[in-house]
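Worked example (supplementary).
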Amino acid sequence: MNGDREAFETLLVQYEKPVFNAAYRMLNSRDDARDVTQTVFLKVFENFDHYDPSRRFFSWIYRITLNESINWLGKSKRLEPLQYEAADEGKGPEQEVDSANLSENVQVALMSIKADYRTVIVLKHFLGCSYIEISEILEIPEKKVKSRLYSARQLLKDALIRTGVH
Amino acid sequence: MAIEQKYTDLINADIDGEISDGDKVALEAFLSENAEGRALHAELTGLCTSLDAVEPAEPPRHLRHVIMNSVNPPSPESAAPGMLPGLLAAPALRYAATFAAGVFLTLSLVSSDQISNRAFDDVTGLVGSVADPVNAELVNSVSVDESQIAGTVSLRRAGTMLILDFDLVSADPIEIEAGYTDPSIWFNGFAQLESSGTSVSAKSGRVTLGMQGKRRYAVYLHNEGGRQTTVNLQFKANGAIVHEASLDYEPTD
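After joint prediction of all chains, the assembly is encoded as:
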């Protein structure tokens, strides 16, 4: 693909948003997500010759995205658990929250769980991947995807209850 | 009592729409007799509904442009093919490599009524001043993220030169005014990469640029004393200001 800007731009148009979103959900920072997105596409551009066409392209680029995000977390030392915002006294499980609050609370909860668990949540709910696709991206058995997703959801549910969302 | 993993798997598969007809029947039979299972199903359904309701975050408007620029091979007229790998590595280097061409191009584009003659009397000196781009130190940078114009403008320093590095994209014509109040600073040149058609005019204390589309260009200001200054940027669409920003330069010596 080197030199083929049109082909690259087509990929960029198609994957810019999911890659940015995945990075944002993994990192909880728009600036970091922007930098990771840029790194991911540069790696795609530079390493396209190494892309194995027997694998689906999305599994390759999403894997790069998640790996870069996890590397970024390590570099920026953002592994410390986030502090929960105390739930308002008046908040109940049925309370409606607007879209922005929901997004923010989900993000806080996401950042409180381990990166392995966050990864499957991001793939399932923010990138819309199926079990088999997650298995392909993470290179783990489908059975493990299911158990990890279940554990991740349980942890996330507990975290969201603490924020008063769920 | 804990729910068997077989059923937690089925509950998850049901919520995710990945359950077979046979397993669906088995799950329904289990749920009809197990309150704990029903509670778990309801909780996880609620959780997934919340997660799926989260709006995707929009990438910065200029991100695609920045990425394309970062992998963009220089156009044939801007650099020799053999220089590609090096030029791709650093924007400052790319500017240097194309600066001479840019300056000469500029001479045909600039309409200047109050520029010091010194600005163009010594083109060789100009090129020489920025021919050491490794030392073009990034001083400050601002992002622009408006519907009319998006990208970044960076302020770099190379010796006595201040370099305004514009990396922008706009759908419609945009006018950009870069103003600086210090009378000892003067417009000293213009270069652009990978595009053409950016117009530039300069008056005392102000450079005005016109652009449309994806553009990467630099404005060179001579700052003899390395004095502290601020460059005020105004971005105008159809004569109306759509964005304002400023870049400060503080001497470090």
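Two points are worth noting when inspecting this output. Chain B has a mean pLDDT of 75. Helices of chain B lie at 5-15, 21-33, 35-53, 63-70, 84-89, 91-109, 118-121, 123-129.
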